[in-house]
Inverse folding.
């Protein structure tokens, strides 16, 4: 019988252990890259949503105030209600429209994901379940697991690792806070504008510039949430709603005292 020396067996075992260690390290790096890319994409998406809504709905508030002023409707309404109530009703009404639109978008995206899972073959979904129940199966039987099943399992793990209640709650808070803040400024501009559109452009420039600066800072904060520029951009009220949402999805990037 042919027998290997003990030194040769020990070297083979060490070599196998090194291969498993390298594979586990590569898998860990791959998961970290997927999670970091996903959090950056979620932060950028949330920031750009707040950026668009503050511009669109704030401009709608300004146009509504301008129309009521030029058509003399405000003079009739003010005879029955206070000016503060008139402004607050307009701001809350348009804000409710924006929240309803966001709710419909969330339902649509959830429906698309649920329908997309139906078109995935059953054998791939079974492999995904095997990977989730036994993560070491990828290294033990790599030839039996398809790349599609590995990618789906990694995507599900990355999605499950994200703190969705925190992101959704902060998004609702910063959307309402940023919208109320900027829509009040837009309403104030609309109240002093007559029928000249050029006057409106010159007056809304000081209001839109902080929003644009916040969007520029947010593009960097979504990738590097711990820089001094991202920190101060998320603390200043004029840019905080946009920049903070770019930082929140990254795990551990925003301490609780900064949110407070």
């Amino acid at each position: 019988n042919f027998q290997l020396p003990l030194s040769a067996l020990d070297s083979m075992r060490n070599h196998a252990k090194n291969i498993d260690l390298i594979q586990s390290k590569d898998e860990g790096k791959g998961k970290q890259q997927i999670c970091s890319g996903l959090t950056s994409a979620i932060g950028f998406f949330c920031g750009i949503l707040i950026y668009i809504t503050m511009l669109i709905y704030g401009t709608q508030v300004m146009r509504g105030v301008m129309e009521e002023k030029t058509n003399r409707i405000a003079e009739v309404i003010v005879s029955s209600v206070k000016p503060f109530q008139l402004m607050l009703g307009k701001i809350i009404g348009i804000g409710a429209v924006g929240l309803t639109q966001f709710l419909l978008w969330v339902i649509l995206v959830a429906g698309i994901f649920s329908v997309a899972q139906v078109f995935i073959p059953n054998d791939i979904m079974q492999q995904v379940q095997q990977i989730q129940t036994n993560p070491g199966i990828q290294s033990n039987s790599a030839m039996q697991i398809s790349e599609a099943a590995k990618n789906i399992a990694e995507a599900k793990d990355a999605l499950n690792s994200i703190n969705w209640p925190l992101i959704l709650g902060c998004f609702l808070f910063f959307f309402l806070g940023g919208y109320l803040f900027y829509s009040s400024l837009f309403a104030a501009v609309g109240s002093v504008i007559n029928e000249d559109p050029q006057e409106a452009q010159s007056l809304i420039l000081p209001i839109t510039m902080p929003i644009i600066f916040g969007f520029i800072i947010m593009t960097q904060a979504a990738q590097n949430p711990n820089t001094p520029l991202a920190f101060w951009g998320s603390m200043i009220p004029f840019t905080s709603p946009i920049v903070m949402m770019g930082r929140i999805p990254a795990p551990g990037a925003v301490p609780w005292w900064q949110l407070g």
